[in-house]
Amino acid sequence: MKELLNLKAIFSNDLMIVVGLIFGLLIFASTSFFVVGKIKPNTNLTELKSRTKSWWVMATVFIAATLLNTKISYLALAFLSFMAFRELYSLLDLRTSDRRAIFWALLAIPAQYYLAYIGWYGAFIILIPVAMFLIIPMRLVLKGDTNGIIKSMATLQWSLMLTVFSISHLAYLISLPQIKGFAVGGRGLLLFIVFLTEMNDILQFTWGKLFGKHKVIPKVSPNKTWEGLIGGIICTTIAGYFLAFITPLTNIEAAVVSFIVAISGFIGDVVMSAVKRDIGVKDTGSAIPGHGGILDRIDSLAYTAPVFFHLVYFLEY
Amino acid sequence: MKNLILKITYSFVLRWFLKLIVGVKFTNAEFLKDIKQFIIVANHNSHLDTITLMASLPSYILPNVKPVAAVDHFGKSRFSTWLSNTFINTLLINRKRDKENLENDPIHKMISAIDQGFSLILFPEGTRGEPEKEQKLKGGIGLILEQRPDILIVPAYMKGMGKAMPKGDSLIIPFNSKLVYGKPKRIKFDTVQDVLNQIENDFKELKTIANK
Hints:
Chain A is mainly α. Chain A has eleven helices and no strands.
């Protein structure tokens, strides 16, 4: 039991501050919606309320999965990748003859997370960009249906990169070697990037709702405004500066990294918006009430995770 | 013993397998526990259809629900008959009518199951078709209703099953799919074709709901 529940990590003060902060924010959001609903019963808060409810669930599951036990963290993140990958290829209208290639792509998920778990960096970083890049077209060619094969090759590779390769960087954060004088370890980095990315989403959304006027990229996502983007980036950068204590970075480094993360998060968001627009759907699914599908929630994370990982890797390891 | 096997297989093992691995989104089927007897009519694209419908049911009505299946497919040998009867609780029927030998007649068999108090799961399309394409419905359901017009019909539509496990392939590839139920109802009709048209309409309506 002691091994299963890594109590030392739960009671590490630095992590507890952030966990407290997360639940503090959630309590603040829930109470303020409750109060606003009482004062102005006519305001339509249904969507915001169901979003916040889902945030409670997601935050609790995420914190439990990351802090209790690292083995569970790898499994949980692998399952997240699996759900996102399944959601994506289900939408992308692949051919019946692609089924065997999809099966091989699915096998890459446990392999990729196992490599993250044992911390074999060299293999982790080439499995999908190199090995799967070669294997998927081979499997499609063996099946022999050439009609539309380019699209299938490209679709499967891109989907794997986005939902498995990118997201698995979160798992590798926990496998990074210990640094002297940085006791919190990889869990701190994981908590930092996930919290920062999701805060960035919320902040850009809120700034946009409050002050949004000038559209950034109306053809792709009419809700994205310069006011929201810039307000979000500034707030995220400041948040990163103060959250540096759960990373091995200095405050200034953390602020610079957060600035880049904020921009990547925005890009991930609009890339997924463009894909949804092409398919003709509003959400990628209905797995998370108020948010849409799994991908709607982790689209920005798919961009911020590798960016953050490689920045930290470059700066510290 | 058989009841226990059915409950464990569907309400635990298969329900979670379908939800977590295959990615089936179930709609609540709790309303079925208030109905004494019913026939679920559903579209048919995959072997997963039957187990998905069974896994969606409230566990204690499971032993009372029999999916209707073709004997030439599910009763090939004594072993496969035993498997189908134990794990799917099937009612095995012939595809062709046999009015001289009532023991072999599919309609007679289904009606006597109804008279014994069983509910049925029926795929009026007959055999499995191409994913996401509807086939012409067969008359069996109408013939049953001609003799037992008071039984409640529950339309069901499944989307994506044929992609997760299409006909002619035994490999399951997870695919985000969905099961939706329509409202239970008594069908009013003059001819067998009436029944089929109404069920076809139900499928169309449920399909738009499933695609939302």
